Amino acid sequence: MAAMSSLIHGLNRAGICRLFPFGRPLAARSLGTWTSPASQAAVYNEHGPPDQVVRVVDIPACSLKENEVCVKMLAAPINPSDINRIEGVYPIRPPVPAVGGGEGVGIVIAKGDDVGNLFVNDLVIPASSGLGTWRNYIVKEEDAWCKVRNDIPIEYAATVSVNPCTAFRMLEDIVALGARDVVVQNGATSMVGQCVIQLAHLRDLQTVNIVRDRPNLQEVTGKLKKLGATEVLLESQSSKDLLVGLGKPLLGLNCVGGSAASAVMKLLGDGGTMVTYGGMSKKPITVATSAMIFKNLHLRGFWMQNWVNEHTREEFTGMTDYLLGLVKKGVLQYSMEKVPFSQFSLALEKAMGKHGSSSKQVLIF
Predict the structure, then answer these.
(1) φ and ψ at residue 196, rounded to 5 degrees
(2) Is 90 noted as a catalytic residue in this protein?
(3) Which band of pLDDT confidence, cut at 50, 70 and 90, is reported for residue 179?
(4) The whole model's pTM is what?
């Protein structure tokens, strides 16, 4: 009990919840003085293994200021970056105690009198990461949110701003790609990997997709081909002889590191560029000296947060609108598993890989 009281006190001190008398009615309209409903939230009081330091607790109601909106969360994914924040190894992380989650979608249920661009019943997503989306209700300034369309499944709105945007930007910004050019990637079954395949297909690009060996390899290959993959290879099969007729890849995408990164570099053509946007294996990238000298390979990184920091809000919303438009048309889809917030612990374990390979875990509130 003492530990719980300390946690709630810390959350209040951090501004996550501002104590206010309970009992005021919920009303989906603009009010001069209003209090959000009490909320449940997945919080951590210290950095460490997420399944050991995160707990779902009751958070008191928050008063609504004139420039704030109250958002009822509808869905929020568990991303690798969320795990890293809790572990304390991510470059941007909130001070503890903190609520987990950086991405999601919610609906505006009340707004302060000075809020001019958001309205009750608008669907919104965080304008930047680290908002703390693993909770039922969030009271935050209007500028913390971006409005999104309301005619697509909520799980897609909840997940559009990180993985699909990462895939889109890497295909658009790194090297100039024309019709029938080749992109090679590892981590092809990840959400980014699935998005890369479909976005490349829409641009008439070819994709070579490296996957790890697994019992259901034929099934996985079939699913990736259905999304538009040109070739699906095992890491151990990554030989240039398999790419005859495709052309030499100009762009390589790496989210694994270790030998999987080496497999991507092995397939890149002369002057090709490998972009690293993740490190799921937690193994370093080793580059052969000959590849750097004789193939003139270029290595660089990509972090979606940097792109957001360097571009305007309008550019960000334009990108998410475009991607959600593709979802609406049925030409952009990816695997997800919707999990009730009441089963948060199981979803967290799956996201951490404790139950084998799992689809993206999306909490439903």
Answers:
(1) -55, -45
(2) yes
(3) very high
(4) 0.90
